[in-house]
Amino acid sequence: MSRILASRRLTRLALTALAFAVTFVAISATPDNADAASRRHLRLLRSSPAADTVLTAAPADVRLWFSESPELKVTTVRLAGPSGAVELGELSRGEAADAPIVAPVKGAMAAGAYTVTWRTMSDDGHVMTGTLKFQLTAASSR
Predict the structure, then answer these.
(1) Is pLDDT larger for residue 71 or for residue 76?
(2) I need a labelling partner for 31 at 20 to 30 A (CA). Which of 9, 10, 24, 70 fits?
(3) Backbone dihedral angles phi then psi of residue 98, each to the nearest 5 degrees
């Protein structure tokens, strides 16, 4: 009889521990905690052109400011529009810690919707990616 009671207590204890673990994981995965985790990694702070803007003239370059200095060697920036990919020049970054990544626009840009896609890596090795969109109302002939 005592073996049966001990087994039931052990089962209840295991189920209680499992319920606690599931609750802990669920609480840890809430958006507030997810936002806190993402703030600890490199993230895009702002851009030029800014996301969701409408431009009347083609930008000379795409500039991306990050929360920490990304590894330039492994950073890529792509620009795509209504006619496909737009040629960008070699990426650069100034010496200041808050200097943006700069991608000079070399190709012509037709009026329409554009998407900037970026990929980079922080000092801690985490790869981060993102996109932003903007509109161009007038074509350029670079």
Answers:
(1) 76
(2) 70
(3) -100, 15
Cα distance between residue 98 and residue 24, in whole Å: 37
Q: How many CB atoms neighbour CB 58 within 10 A?
A: 22
Two structure tokens written together for 55: 């431009």
β-partners of residue 1 are: none
Distance CA 24, CA 2 (A): 33
Do the Cβ atoms of 65 and 47 come closer than 8 Å? yes
Q: Give the model's confidence band at 122: pLDDT under 50 very low, under 70 low, under 90 confident, else very high.
A: confident
Structure tokens given for 99: 């200097």
DSSP assignment string, 63-118: EEEESS---GGG-EEEEEETTEEE-B---EE-SSTTPPEEEEB-S---SEEEEEEE
- Report pLDDT for 12: 65
Length of the chain: 142
Which contiguous run of DSSP H or E holds residue 136? strand 127-136
Q: What span, in angstroms and rounded, lies between the C-alpha atoms of 134 and 89? A: 19
The two three-digit tokens of residue 22, written as one number:
């599931």
Determine the residue type at 43. R
